[in-house]
Amino acid sequence: MEYLEFAKHVQTELGTLMGADVRVEIHSVMKMNHDPDLGLCILPKGEEVAPIVYLQPHFMRYLSGRGMVDVLSDIVRQYHEAEPPRYPLEALQDWHRMRGRICARLISAERNEDYLEGVPHRRFLDLALVYYILMEENDDRVSIANITRECLSQWGVTEKELYDMSLYNMPQLMPVSAVNLQDLLEQMLLRGEGNSVDLRVGNILSGEKITDEDSAPIYVVTNTAHYLGAIAIFYPDVLNSLLARLDWSECYVLPASIHEMIICPDYSHMGLEQLSCMVKEVNETAVDETDRLTDSVYYYSRESGDLQLMNSCSPRKEKQIFGIRIGSDGGRYHGN
Question: pTM for this one?
Answer without folding.
Answer: 0.74
